Amino acid sequence: MSVQTMESIGASLKTAIEGRDGRKLAGLYASDAVLRVMDRNNPPSKPREIKGRAAIATFWDDICSRTMTHKVDTSIAEGERLAFTQDCTYPDGTKVFCIAVVDLKDGLIARQTVIQAWDE
Amino acid sequence: MRTVDTRYARNGDVRIAYQVIGQGSLDLVFVPGFVSNLEILWEDPGFAHLVKRLSAFSRLILFDKRGTGLSDRFNPYGSPSLAAQVDDLLAVLNAAGSGRTALLGEADGVAVSLLFSTTHPQRTRALALYGGYAHFYGSVMQGQFLAEFLQKIDTDWGRGMTLQRFSASRADDQRFSAWWGRLERLSASPSSAMALARMSASIDIRDRLSKVQVPTMVVHRMGDVHVNPDGGRFLAANIPGATFTGLPGNDHPIWMGDIDRMADTVEEFLTGERRVPSGGRVLVALLIVRVLGARQLPDGINDQQRREQLANFRDLATNLLVLHGGHVLNWDLERITIRFDGAARAAQCALALRDLAETSSLRLAQGVHAGEIEASGDLASGFAIHVAERVAAAAQSGSVLVSSVVAELAKGSGLRFVESCTVDIDGFDAPVRLLSVAAEQHLEPVRHHKAEPSLAALTVREREVLHLVADGMSNAAIASRLDLSEHTVKRHVANMLLKLDLPTRTAAAAFSARHAKA
């Protein structure tokens, strides 16, 4: 797997998320990466944790199977960290908005924290 | 209760109501059994809890099938087919943007889920089949019972008649039964209910089981009163690679009984992990007070007086609860739920409440249980509350029943417990022993000969109120005389009666007269 620079990983994340390419997304993570999700149902003291590349691959596969549009924007990079927003819309108009912070290690994502809010 | 948006998916001319809850990474659709109504089901704490649990790890999609709840009606004289239901489900998933979905089928919904997975394997992530069957006549009821069931729908639909068929444990709960009647009325018309029952009776998907290609778990409550667990076992044995999980309990609806255990099982199957228990649980003693006879008015008492009597009881009882360290979780006209830090305190408070009630025409039946509840603010939920309700339901008028765990916890408190009966409670493997409480365990009952309380215990204002009560004035008249609100007067009267240890206003008047003479 090629080691990626900060700029290229930001661009890869954007292309893969917007193109709903779960396999490509999974390839950006370290094998022992941890993805944490916080939302109304998973509060900060008990976030949902997805550990390891295999589980993260399933996570992205599930999300990419949805017929929804994703728009990745507002990337901010600093040192080994990257933050971006993700604006998603389901076919029935329901919206989800996420903000994610990513920590890189050796060019791969080692840790990601996602905060999300949605219409209901 | 949080309001969730209801949306409508279109399958041709038919519109199917659906709701989406949560944003977990995995899509999960609940395929309901007989009838449902997405607006009403949320009122049930069990249903809301199941939804909360499932939507913590998934994006949960709920819908009312055609002919039920908020969805379009069908012509009840034509038969709704399983194939049409599979198409409706596909329409819902398309509308919700779900490309690959895990299906949680309940009872009749198991056949719909299973047929969906064989028709659209690429759209199915996994199957969790609860309380289901492949062949109606083999697992649910025989032909002659079906005829009786249809007859019963014809004559009794909308009055909670199906509750007995679906849940043995809560069939005697009048309040729940009334709510269930509402659920029936708002879920389907009698003709639709009969058409759906006939459609369920035609279910025979035995030849389709071997065609399932997705990971499948079959789960069944082993005491299910509606669908025999053999129905579930048959599914598991004939679906390639399927597992079977038997859980304790006898309630048929998935959102009744031990919901957490059900949610744990489904979550573990779908995500591979079990949720760590949450930290909001606390161990408490629970007292449930059933106020009896609130509808049968003794001669000469009208509704207005009855209301006053209940309000007066509430004032006095509140004082007693505070003295015993109780915290009210819920206070309905006929049912009070109170939590305590200790088991003996709860039982002692129950005895005090019983004595208080005996000074009026009210009668109480009370139950005490100790266990963990999920507590946040004044809201509390949990299995222990359900158990306490069952204990209270078993209590007769004037008696205080406790579960055996309370009797054990209260050892050394001076309370005496006498074996009373046993009840079967959902979620317990063995019947639960109930004991009745007697106050003291001395051969010679110890009597606290209290000196008659003196007027000195009263505040100046309370003394003033006492004199006016003795003059036969109503609360309203006293309020106007003293330039106070009626509520404040009521509070003064209640405090005055409590301090003087007197049961009624009349007793207070007599007390006042005695002291005036002295």
From TrEMBL, chain B:
SUPFAM superfamilies (alphabetical): alpha/beta-Hydrolases (SSF53474), C-terminal effector domain of the bipartite response regulators (SSF46894), Nucleotide cyclase (SSF55073)
Q: Where is the HTH luxR-type domain?
A: 451-516
Q: Which GO terms describe its biological process?
A: regulation of DNA-templated transcription
Q: Which SMART domains match?
A: HTH_LUXR (SM00421)
Q: What Gene Ontology terms describe what this protein does at the molecular function level?
A: DNA binding
InterPro entries in alphabetical order: AB_hydrolase, AB_hydrolase_fold, Hydrolase_4, Nucleotide_cyclase, Sig_transdc_resp-reg_C-effctor, Tscrpt_reg_LuxR_C, WH-like_DNA-bd_sf
Designated name of the protein: LuxR family transcriptional regulator
Organism per entry: Phyllobacterium brassicacearum
